[in-house]
Amino acid sequence: MQSLIRVAGITAAQIPHLLEAQLHACRHGDHGLGAKTGFAIQAGDKRGLLRFCCLAARGCHGLSSACRYGGFDFIGRCMALSMEVPPLYQVPKLHSGLRQRWETQVVTFDLKALQRRRARFLGAAMTLWRTGIIVIRGAASRQAVDALATMAERTWQDVSTLIPGQELPHVILNRGDKRAVRGYNALVKSVKPVVNFRHGEDDGMMDVFHPENLVPEQRQLILGCLHEDLVGDLAGKAFGRKLEVSCRNLYVNKGVQNTRFYHCDGKGVKIKSFVYVNDVESLDIGPYCYVKSSHHDRWLRRRNQDFNERHGFNKHEYRLLKGCSALPVFCRAGDMVVSAQHGAHRGYPQEASAARTVLVNVYQPSQSSR
Questions:
Q1: Residues 254/344, Cβ–Cβ less than 8 Å
Q2: What is the model's pLDDT at position 368?
Q3: Which of 7, 23, 76, 159 is deepest in the core (most CB within 10 A)?
Q4: From CA 34, how far away is CA 251, in angstroms rounded?
Q5: Taking the CA atoms of the chain, what radius of gyration do you get in angstroms?
Q6: Strand partners, 262
Q7: Which of 104, 65, 128, 171 lies closest to 272, judged by CA?
Q8: 256, 202 in Cβ contact below 8 A?
Q9: Distance between CA atoms of 243 and 225, rounded to whole angstroms?
Q10: What's residue 187's pLDDT?
Q11: Residue 36 CB contacts under 8 Å (≥ 6 apart), including other chains
Q12: Strand, helix or coil for residue 215
């Protein structure tokens, strides 16, 4: 029986790294890959490994878009499997070229127009309700963007130069096995800023909780570029709920290649705004990607939840997106993306040399409207 393994989104130069990872797993008898991903090559399976080598060599330059994963991830994530096991991923088509620009343009609004024209505000709210995503051009000034960029780089450098056991006086550091603050709710409730380095999916990403408190003299400048009243009112109008800010974050990604696949943040209404601190105008930099209107698609959610339950995956994963299209959102520094997180979304894997920084706001229903 001909194998249906496909290699997705890799180059010839990356094949040795894939093989090295699989050889390491085989040498150590690591069946975890098979258990977690259904990967067909088990420890000691030299024929399977050879077959993978041949397919990798043949497929690295002309891959089917239906099988493209969308970036180099760990070996088990780079393949959709054979007849006896359903594919781990049925990936959506990524909009590109003129279609990508058009799909972005129809959900794009100018900040000043939203502030001055009620009709434009209502149009943006309707678009957010219908598609789950809008772009607001010019949300942050050049001054605010520069302040955020400086803050992000200084924090990254301060943490990177620490020796083991050393702390920073004005922040709490979560890195490696040392987790001073554990659990999302504890991170949200922390009084001091928390510099949290993620592990597993999004490994290496620096996630700063409460960045508005990192540099006290920049607090108002940072809060100003988030436009919390405007965005909260707009999202509240879109979803018929009174929303309030539950958390602010600063995401710093530098060469993060192992990003989480498409997922939602739960069933309930949850809105995030992302202020781009640097230009993100190509897939290499790792843009935010969104499947429009997926937050309304109950059949799609149920289909994925049933699949996840059968295979032991997180119930909020979207692994079956064949026939769907995802929009990679390209923006300039200072632009804002507003997204319904109960729809299918992901951060696209970056090239090793790429960097991306975004300021994030989380809006959730207030206690009185739950």
A1: no
A2: 65
A3: 7
A4: 32
A5: 21
A6: none
A7: 128
A8: yes
A9: 18
A10: 87
A11: 76
A12: coil
Q: Could you give phi then psi for residue 98, rounded to 5 degrees?
A: -60, -35
Q: Is 133 helix (H, G, I), strand (E, B) or coil?
A: strand
Helix H or strand E segment including 17: helix 15-27
> For the stretch 118-153, what's the b/e string if a residue is b when 16 or more beta carbons lie within 10 angstroms of its beta carbon?
eeebeebbebbbebbbbbbbebbeeebbebbeebbe
Looking at the chain, which runs of residues are DSSP E strands?
93-94, 108-110, 133-137, 172-175, 178-179, 194-197, 206-209, 243-254, 271-276, 288-290, 325-329, 336-340, 345-347, 355-365
pLDDT of the residue at 44: 43
Give burial (CB, 10 Å; 0-12/13-18/19+) of 161: exposed
Give SS3 for 266. coil
Q: Tokens in use for 51?
A: 């077959």
Q: Which residues of 266-284 are buried (b: 16+ CB within 10 A; e: fewer)?
A: eeebbbbbbbbbbebeebe
Question: Which tokens go with 18?
Answer: 């894939």
- Left if phi > 0, otherwise alpha if psi is -120 to 50, otherwise beta: which for 182? beta
pLDDT of residue 203: 76
The predicted structure's pLDDT at residue 102: 97
CB-based contact 31:73 (threshold 8 Å)? no
- In angstroms, the CA 224 to CA 329 distance is 23
271-276 and 355-365 beta bridge pairing? antiparallel
Q: Residues of the chain whose pLDDT is less than 70?
A: 1-87, 176-177, 200, 368-370
DSSP state letters, 77-126: GG----TTS--S-BPPEEP-HHHHHHHHHTTEEEHHHHHH-HHHHHHHHH
pLDDT of residue 321: 95
